[in-house]
Amino acid sequence: MTLIDQYVTLTLSLPDDLLLPNDGEGETYISVQTANSSNPVQVAHYKEPILRSGRWNFYFSHNYTGVSVKYRVNVSMSHKGVPLLIDLDHFVIVHRMPHRQTLNLSPVGRLYIQAQGPQVVKPEEAVTIAAHEHDNAGMQLTKVHISEQLAEAFYLEYDPDAVVPGKRYTLTATENEYRNSIEIYPESVVLKPLG
After folding, report:
1. Of 4, 124, 127, 138, which Cα lies nearest the Cα of 61?
2. CA dist 99 to 60, 92, 119, 162, 170, Å?
3. Of 8, 148, 180, 191, which has the most beta carbons under 10 Å away?
4. Domains of the chain with CATH codes
5. Whole-number mean pLDDT of the chain?
6. Which of 142, 132, 138 has its CA nearest to residue 170?
């Protein structure tokens, strides 16, 4: 392992069109702490009297082997004492070295957002219908993936011998591309009467 392989490489990124002030006092401060322990350990802290723009690399030493480590990284920039970045913690999880990651910083007035994109699904698996115990969603009786057209009205088959007589079951439906819940009827039903 080379010396550089013992360091985590973070590419800190600001919007390309962001214009930072170039007069007066500017400061950039970077703090790195372990985040997966009750007592965080300061791993790195760096302060420089300049403001950087665009993208630049920051390195910190990773002294752990054979274990994954979660780090909390906080980057702040100020000009004449006025904060230029939104105060956000960024989390970096290092499983093995070398590790490289980009952190997109959020200047005041521009929050960088990451959203889960839609999942590509086959048309015949566009909807998931599940039946589970009414008071325990983890106890699933059955689950099917079907097309949107079939989901409008169909018979959900289940094993009557796996059903507890008189017990109420809940049905849920999820549209798989965007993970939205879909209204379903009936949403709660006793699948096997007592008796």
Report:
1. 4
2. 11, 10, 27, 48, 44
3. 8
4. 3-104 (2.60.40), 123-190 (no CATH)
5. 84
6. 132
